[in-house]
Specification:
Blueprint lengths: L2 E7 L7 H10 L6 E7 L4 H11 L3 E5 L5 H11 L7 E5 L1 H4 L2 H7 L5 E3 L4 H12 L10 E7 L2 E6 L25 E4 L2 E3 L15 E3 L2 H13 L4 E4 L8 H15 L9 E6 L6 H8 L6 E8 L3 H6 L6 H14 L4 E7 L6 H12 L5 E6 L7 H4 L7 E2 L7 E3 L5 H19 L7 H5 L5 H15 L8 H18 L4 H22 L20 H9 L4 H4 L8 H7 E6 L3 E8 L2 E6 L9
Parallel strand pairs: 1-2, 1-3, 3-4, 4-5, 8-11, 11-12, 12-13, 13-14, 14-15
Antiparallel strand pairs: 5-6, 6-7, 9-10, 16-17, 18-19, 19-20
Length: 587
Amino acid sequence: MHILLACLNAKFVHTNLALRYLRDAVRLEFPKTELREFTINERVERIAAEIFEAKAEVVGFSCYIWNLTETLAVIRQLRPVCPDSRFVLGGPEVSYDAGVFLSKHQEVDAVVYGEGERTFLELLQTWREKQKPENVLGLAWRDFTAEGMKIRLNPSRPLLAMSDLPIPYQVKEDFHGRLAYVETTRGCPFNCQYCLSSTIKGVRYLEPERFRIIFKRLLEDGARTIKFVDRTFNVQKRHAFQILDIVREEAEKYPPEEGIRAHCEIAGELLDQEWVNYLKDYPAGLLQFEVGVQSTYRPTLKIIDRTQHFEQWKGYIQELKCWETLPLHLDLIAGLPEEDWENFRMSFNEVYAVQPDMLQLGFLKVLKGSGLREKSQEYGLVYSPDPPYTILQTRAMSHDELLKLHRLEDVLDRYYNSGKFQTVLPIALSLFASPFDFYHELAEFWQRRGWFKQSWSGKALFDKLWEFLESCLIQSKQRTQTINDLRKSLRDRLRFDYYRWERPGGIPKLLQIPEEELSEDYAADKVKIQFDERWQEKIPERRNMDRRQWARATAVEYFLNKGWVLFFYKNGRAEAYPLLDDNFEGV
């Protein structure tokens, strides 16, 4: 039998772990099993054409909230021209109420619900023997009898021990420039009512040395960013430390410039001083944590059954943050029950105060089978009827307010999460009552200008921010001298961020220093500093560059709050070297 496993990923860089489990679960018995990955942004016709030309007898799709609509469109296009092929769906988006799903979609032959590694293998075995899969656990299927077609829902399959799962990534692949996914646990200790993990009790663990085999193979195949899909990576401290020890041991076999990084989702509630002590000596940049805060409003946390005390564990986050060796992402969810505009504003400000490397603002997805879906009427949850079931309004938050938060999310990503405006933002925020108010007003400014309707280059964001800040200063009721000082400071810091972002071919007019503020020796000093021979003592690369190469790799500018600064541009980023005094003693 020719088997084709397919998935429509959200982006090209993404890969699908589930397909690789399935491939390695069946390929010994069904060696003619291949894997194809597409994206939801590709044309349905092109995807369908590639699958059609593969001439597979069985086509399996991995389905999620972000790809189900597009996946069904592909199958509907294939069904009329592939009458003898069987289409099988699996994944979290079709696992809940699989029989009902199958009855609604006549183009699908079977649905694997729950964990599919064993189920899919047994299904293929029965089809190969031309038998009905009536004894295959964890399967919904079409039964054609003399009386007609009936939907059969077989009993569910018991959960597998992780040692019984196949080892994925046994087939040689090229993961350069792509994200690779691994898991060391299945299940979650928490009972969050917005998450499907709450429907499965208990946590299962992968034996650490088994993980080493997987991780080594990924690194050998070029993977440099590896994401753990464990719902709560730090659920058991001893297990997590063993896994992280292996990550460090295997990564140390590669030079630092390879840029290997492991990304884990953790629960802040499970952090303690032992975790902090362990991470203190962990190699810089090798690890990245994502921490789901979701909300700090206690009534909402009680409703969603999210046990946490942010005010208690945020100190550990702040301690980790001060080392600047471990990137930290903190998550919030908008649209949770009973959290109104003002309470969400408080949650945002509390999390922002920790200054995470990224503040990810997401919106509630009212998933099929989740506790919140079942109680949606009780909490006034109105959500999109189609995947991904995004919240539209709640009893506490209007649709207008949620639209404003969507716009706030956009500017938050552009200005805070991009990391390009680190110098100017602290001063810009001082003009407002809170960080939330700054980003909200900036988003509404963009909305009034119609800027969300267009695409903008990274450079244009500086102009847009300056225009917004100028409007705020004009409306300010502070003394004229104070406003002028603020304007100079904001412009100066924005210029610094502009230089730090990339080597400028030219400075936007709004950010140029007025001629009356320049000294007579400005141009001469700029050249003198840039080509001072002593730079080779601080920047060894200078020794291997001629004057022209050095000019292209550097820029020099004067700043009110920093003095003269030389920027050295290397590998897509700038290193800033301020001079200590006018005699260039800092060189």
